[in-house]
Amino acid sequence: MTGSNRRQEILKNIKESDRPVSGSKLAKDYDVSRQVIVQDIALLRALGYDIISTNRGYVLEGQTCAERVFKVRHTDEQLETELCTIVDLGGQVKNVMVNHKVYGHIEAELGITSRRKVKEFLEDIKSGKSTPLKNITSDYHYHTVTADSEETLGMIEDELRKLGFLVEN
């Protein structure tokens, strides 16, 4: 099998899978080293395929399998812990939402996918650029979180519960 054919097969494998495909599995399936798979993924990305590396394997951007809305409450000082917990467990924080008694539903896109993005967001807050939306609703707010599986979302939910952030009605 040529490198080009292998890359097309890898792409097909990732597209058709309902869960992330690990580099180790791809290496075994195509009888090449893990490093060859990493290089193939880099070449596919250079061709314009938006392949994301998660802690469980490779997925195509927009192919995230699971999504859940969490109602949470915490202080400003706990904001970093909340966001890092979600991304460290494999989640992506799409947005923040609040339900205000006068203004109704207010939503802002966040797109937080990594600790680096958490840091950038917190720097914007600390610089005075803005304040957390949760502050207008006594710290109650919602996040839409995406992940590679329902299992990952379950782990995130469990950890938010342990931290005392999850609001359960």
UniProtKB/TrEMBL annotation:
SUPFAM superfamilies: Putative transcriptional regulator TM1602, C-terminal domain, Winged helix' DNA-binding domain. InterPro entries: 3H_dom_sf (IPR035922), 3H_domain (IPR004173), HTH_11 (IPR013196), NadR (IPR026043), WH-like_DNA-bd_sf (IPR036388), WH_DNA-bd_sf (IPR036390). Residues 71-166 form the 3H domain. Ni(2+) binds at H74, E82, H141, H143. It comes from the Bacteria. GO terms for molecular function: metal ion binding. Residues 6-58 form the Helix-turn-helix type domain. The keyword Metal-binding applies. Keywords: Metal-binding, Nickel. This is Transcription repressor NadR. The lineage of its organism: Bacteria, Bacillati, Bacillota, Clostridia, Lachnospirales.
